[in-house]
Recover the amino acids of this structure.
């Protein structure tokens, strides 16, 4: 069975919403640290970096989704 990241890499034209990406991050242990303006910032207890997720209606760009998923590994 493919992992979520492998699935996204195979389906380059797949579009995910902010809700889909947020659900994936929370399932990996990431916590929403702040939500201001048009982005949510997620942090992880063992990671040294933060992940910014755009918050808007509709689908996120496939390149943005791939970048977020790579950073969440």
């Amino acid at each position: 069975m493919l992992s979520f990241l492998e699935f996204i890499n195979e389906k380059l034209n797949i579009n995910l919403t902010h809700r889909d990406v947020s659900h994936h991050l929370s399932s990996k242990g990431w916590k929403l640290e702040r939500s201001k303006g048009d982005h949510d910032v997620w942090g992880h207890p063992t990671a040294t970096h933060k992940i910014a997720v755009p918050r808007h209606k509709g689908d996120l760009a496939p390149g943005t989704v791939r970048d977020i998923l790579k950073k969440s590994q």
Observations:
- The CA atoms of residues 7 and 31 lie 23 Å apart.
